[in-house]
Write a structure and sequence with these properties.
about 240 residues, mainly alpha, binds heme C
Length: about 240
């Protein structure tokens, strides 16, 4: 009688078992990886080697983002300040506060504080800070209310769909360029008559914006989009160069 099942098939049940085992492990690992904040990112809030309260320095002391992130409007990357920037004040202020010990150690040894980077786009995408903040996009649109954060967290997804959402409708985010670093700015703060005198209004607007009580984000955004000829890239090569 012909051997119906070839010899190797004796091993089949074992192979299936091993495969199933590997699959389950991979699925568990994937769920873990994708479901923890580092991957979904929103909410990712690593512990920094030295606490740095943005709320105290920005809200309470009134410091501008560019005092520390001094490359943000001139370069692709926005730098993290060096120890000297902190010590400009902290060699005098809060000299004995234990919360500043790692900064003092860094000052003495010359080794930089190892800040943990929170936001990171993959290497195959091109992102440029200056191209955004000099075109009326505020830190607020991409990093949230940093001025109120005791500890910085990842506030927006920074996924491709998220980038494209704004690139398709930048009018939802554009603001007068003297308000880019003001994270508390609201469309309601704009005086319509002054705004129209400075920037005009969209060509096909049905009413006179300068006579309105208040302008909406869309009205402000649409005006600036036309005025500055804003055209964020939607093609693949725009961001994958
Ligand atoms: C006195 C200096 C100082 C000022 C002023 C300041 N920052 Fe920072 N910022 C830091 C330091 C130090 C870090 C790194 C530690 C941390 O993430 O908390 C940082 C981190 C950040 C990060 C996270 C960077 C990453 O790792 O991805 C963002 C976003 C940020 N700052 C935005 C802002 C914005 C927006 C403003 C203005 C409203 C501002 N900062 C003002 C010092 C400053
Ligand atoms: C322009 C001056 C100035 C600079 C620059 C500055 N700070 Fe401060 N910082 C202050 C002042 C003033 C206070 C005290 C605020 C208070 O008493 O409420 C303070 C407080 C602090 C505290 C104590 C917060 C607490 O809860 O006790 C930490 C930590 C701190 N700063 C870290 C830093 C770091 C890190 C840097 C550099 C990235 C930095 N600061 C740069 C002025 C500065
Ligand atoms: C259009 C969105 C967008 C705007 C506007 C924006 N950022 Fe960012 N920011 C990002 C992205 C994306 C990254 C990650 C960059 C990378 O990996 O190269 C980032 C990273 C950072 C970092 C970490 C250092 C770095 O460059 O990798 C700091 C600090 C920072 N931003 C501060 C700011 C400040 C301050 C402002 C406002 C003046 C601002 N950002 C405006 C999207 C934005
Ligand atoms: C909140 C709105 C907004 C978000 C979010 C945003 N962008 Fe933009 N982007 C703009 C605007 C506005 C411009 C300027 C277009 C212009 O100058 O005509 C721009 C321009 C660009 C440019 C062309 C500038 C240059 O240097 O060539 C690139 C590339 C780009 N964005 C990449 C990204 C990437 C990658 C992300 C996501 C990580 C992103 N953007 C998220 C609004 C946004
Ligand atoms: C506005 C900027 C922008 C444009 C335009 C853009 N991408 Fe992306 N793309 C990104 C960013 C940012 C990421 C990284 C997303 C992340 O880290 O989650 C990405 C990731 C990817 C990935 C990796 C898979 C993933 O989802 O993470 C692929 C593949 C990709 N893009 C293909 C394309 C193609 C094809 C086009 C043209 C149809 C395109 N992209 C246009 C910004 C852009």
């Amino acid at each position: 009688m012909a051997n119906f099942f070839p010899r190797w098939s004796n091993w089949l049940p074992l192979k299936i078992l091993v495969c199933a085992g590997v699959t389950v492990t991979a699925l568990t690992a994937a769920t873990w990886y994708y479901a923890t904040p580092k991957y979904t990112r929103v909410g990712y809030e690593p512990i920094q080697p030295n606490p740095f309260p943005h709320d105290i320095h920005v809200q309470q002391l009134g410091m501008d983002c560019r005092y520390c992130h001094s490359f943000v409007d001139v370069a692709a990357h926005s730098n993290i300040p060096d120890t000297q920037t902190c010590m400009a004040c902290h060699s005098q202020v809060q000299k004995d506060n234990p919360k500043l010990e790692p900064v003092r150690v860094s000052w003495k040894t010359g080794a930089p504080v190892e800040w943990v980077q929170i936001h990171r786009t993959p290497d195959f995408t091109y992102y440029n800070h200056a191209a955004h903040v000099n075109r009326g996009i505020s830190c607020h649109s991409c990093h949230g209310q940093v001025n109120e954060m005791r500890v910085v967290h990842h506030d927006q997804p920074h996924s491709m769909a998220w980038c494209l959402d704004c690139h398709r409708n930048p009018e939802n985010h554009l603001r007068p360029n003297d308000q880019v670093y003001n994270l508390d700015w609201k469309p309601g703060d704009v005086n319509p008559a002054e705004f129209v005198a400075k920037y005009g209004q969209p060509k096909d607007a049905k009413e006179d914006f300068s006579k309105k009580q208040k302008l909406t984000q869309q009205e402000i955004g649409q005006t600036l989009k036309e005025r500055w000829n804003i055209q964020p890239p939607l093609n693949c090569q725009g961001c994958h160069r």
